[in-house]
# Entry
Amino acid sequence: MDLVSSRVHSGGAENLALNERILHLKESGQEVINLSFGQSPFPPMPTAIKALQDNAHVTRYEPVRGTTPLRAAISAFHAAVDCVDVKPDNIIVGPGSKELLFLLMMVFKGDVIVPSPAWVTYSPQALLAGQDPIVMQLKMADEWRVTPEILDETASKCTTENKLLIFCSPDNPTGAGYTKEQLEALRPVILKHNITVVADEVYGFLTFVGDFVSMAKVCPEHTVLSSGIAKWASCGGWRLGFHAFPQRLSSLGDAMAAAASHTYTSASAPVQAAALSLYQDVPAARLYRRHCCRILRAVGQYCLRELQQADLKCVMPKGGYYIFVDFEVVRPGLDKLGVTTCNELFVKIMDDTNVALLAGSPACLRDQHELSCRLSFTDFNGSDALAASHALPDGANLPEGFVEKYCANTVDGIQRLVKWVGNVTRHV
# Structure
């Protein structure tokens, strides 16, 4: 008996399924180094924890769009850190930006453009929302950035007047980031094709190479800003995000609010109170961010250096938690082992090394024969690393040996991968 809608074109999110499998293996006593899952290793700011505790007794349904103080604080926060003018009345708060992205795709009338490589959920969400996503193929030669030429070519394939571009910066899964000039080069194409950009900037405050520039600053009238507290504030499991709309796109915000009222109702009241404490204290948020970013940058640099020395192709992430890695160098050795697809490769790596990686296919929309993966470099004790960083002068580079001492699990995982690659290539 067929009970499932045709809109469900795939199983669950592969990153979550893999993470649950890894948790089960660890609970059964098996050692696994998890370089597959994008979760902050750091503890939340103590003020946010206290605010959550102090408001645990609040059980009321809050307004669908979020509490007035929280929306005002979000507006002021992004004005201060991103120089973005977002009106509180045009902000919708929800139980994670993930849910809001789905609702936006559901209410949007027009084609949806998703990048490849992509975060695992963009395309499945579009399909669940009744869309037929147009895939935009990005290139390592461009450091995985969206270029004007690629965007123009992809938008020209669309058949609807309106287009929605899913644009992540810093990017998940590649770590790609953009300068102001690179974003400005996209603006004429956005205007030419009447593109609405949903700027997924949940990693924006974790930019550690160069200065972060929001798409909402460069192309404000065409951009829906999507962010939240999951990544920069290390509160992923608390589930709180927001979308902010320019006045020109307020009808989309109204439609999303209507859909929200019939689905999740409102974000949790205690979590909104905790988020308010985070967004209200910009100086504390900036200090917390500086320590998190200098640790993440050091770990990312270490991983990149070791992987490149093993002849694996990858580019330095500009922010966030990820490196997108090309394992093409091991293909001749894999042929002898009967391994031909991306998924087979990373099953083999996990079996041989106990290191988990997220295969680029199908999760990230890459071809099944491309030997690529997303590597998350956050499997380490973030509490110890953060405490050690706070004991050092603010603004200075971390001392030699810091990553090896405080991020040892990730270091161990990288060294196992490097050794495995060397063994496979030597036996060709």
About this structure: The first helix runs from residue 14 to 27. The chain has a mean pLDDT of 95.
